[in-house]
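Entry 0007
Protein: site-specific DNA-methyltransferase (adenine-specific)
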Amino acid sequence: MQKIALAEKFYLTTFLEIPQCQTAQHSTAQHSTAQHSTAQQEYDFQSLKLQQLKSVLPEIFSENQIDFEKFQQLFGDQIATSPDRYGLNWAGKSAAYQTLQSPTFKTLTPCVGESVNFDTTQNLFIEGENLDVLKALQKSYFNSVKMIYIDPPYNTGNDFVYNDSFAQSKAEYAEAVGDLDEQGKLKKAFVKNSKENGHYHSNWLNMMLPRLHLARNLLKDDGVIFISIDDNEQAQLKLLCDEVFGEENFVNAIAINMKNIAGASGGGEDKRLKKNVEILLIYVKSYESFNGFENVYEYREISELVEEYKQTGKSWKYTSVLVDKGNANYICSTVDGEGNEIKIYSRKGYQINSVSELSKLENLPEKEIYKKYATKIFQTAMPQSSIRSRVMKAVSELSIENDFFSIEYIPRSGRNKGILYEQFYKGDNFRLLAWLKDVSEEINGELYKKEMQGTFWDFVSETKNLTKEGNIPFPNGKKPVALLKRLLEMQDDKNCLVLDFFCGSGTTAHSVMKLNYEDNGKRRYICVQIPEILDPDDKDQKLAYELCNELNKPTNIAEISKERIRRAGKQISEQHKEIDTGFKVFKLTDSHFKQWQQPTKENLADQLEMFVEPLKKDAGPQAVLYEILLRLGLKLTAKVRWENGVFWVEEENITVALLLTDLQAVNFDEIFAKCPQKVVALDSLFANNDALKKNTELQMNDAGIAFVVI
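Output (structure tokens):
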């Protein structure tokens, strides 16, 4: 165990550097100085982690700082000090951690015109580079997400990896070829990561590390993350996830058959076997808090399955029907291993026919016989059961000549735990009647056989028409809705929040809406997609590019995602208007507040002007409103209404009033009457009138309302 590394994880800095909120009791000078400070105590994630560490290990602190000598005394030889120790390392790893800890000066700006049902929906689509988006979401969505699914670039050698400014190890070369601007920042948000690149794996890991850490922060304690990957990076990803989430929080690695061999890549030319399997890694935030998954089943329509068995020469076992179970005559009792009574009955006058016999007798197709007698169809089995052997022994001692028996007992475990249960046995060997109903389910009037799945899933049939799924042309990399629905169905919460920050064509959003339609759930989603430009010369992107042009939209993948969600939502809402098929669109932009910089001769006047007006000229009230919501830790789907010069924001049991436009329109008596927990006002609205500001503060204090000035 690397205890030092554990402690170092608590050194996380704030993710949102914003002007510090001050109560009005401060003087104007004090307020102005702090107003644009980059130090942000209220939103300091590092302080939060240090407080958590202090609550667990107070003895390692000295004067509110970690004393590593005390730490070493406490843990002794548990601290790994040898340079030769197990772990994943690569070029740029320390810089990746620096990027994780660096703040963002970005915010999320609403785009009402691109949204659907902006005022009522609980779904979000965020357009922008996902590293900054994840940082922007930290305060509002910390410990809020039940399930994350991501399908990141697989690093095949032709993929574009998201390119953070720190990751360019050959900065001089990048500047020489024009990839860096005058400030040394990369012009492109993502670059091609070819296998000839000497930092091929490192670049990909540098991209993934900070994003996974930020994603983990957003997960609830019982939350789960699913990550699709192939064999280019699955080995590295497993080790990286062990580091980020903890090896003890690994759940499963699922092998998913995505293609028939004929359509798979590889083989032949490069001497490898055909690649038709992808990997799905599953981690939880806390295995102790994790409630486990719902059972996973594959469903096959019975009549199709029977026909397939006939065509392939397989033996279909469920062919007998207990038309009449006859009369039960009690003969004796025995006990199970815990001493609970098992009553045994001899059966007379029973009737058993085959499915084919009944089909002829009743002049019905076998498909209809399966539907009509679904609860009475069985096969026989010889389970290694202590109950079966006890029943056989008890009956043999009575020398009863009969070939059909039943028992009644109350199981203490298993599917029928605590319920009076009836079992049937046939023949001299007491073969157990195993019912089709126990392995099948009726869905929309059709009978389906369900088979419990392990860690190999077959989705070949779901990928055959994948290019058309969602009614948008985007063939490369699209995941089937059936796969995402399965992951959603594994969760024990139908009202959970789902996050996908490599959203691609929008399959996750589509799947959430579709499953909500099918089971009346109220799942919500946050989908994040960078506006990656579509290439009209790429055969896999050409049709998507043309669609964007037809719609008069920018030619990027984010537009394809939004269009798919609109189309899928429209189709679903036509059948079920109660389902939330809307989504709020937000775009990653620079903060609407001016950023304080160290004053110089040249910029002193501009910096002083920030004390008078902290907002940028193009900052609209709604944009400022949502930036402040993120600062306050309120969700972007909080209920907002405009009333008499006040933005009223409600989220669960929290009410906040925001004064962002003109104090003349504000009726303060209404605010006092409604008594929100907090009132937030822009300092510039007071026009340097300290008396008005102080009087407002005193009135708020008298009313028991927290008053914050920005």
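Curator remark: Residues 303-447 form one domain. The longest helix spans residues 200-218.
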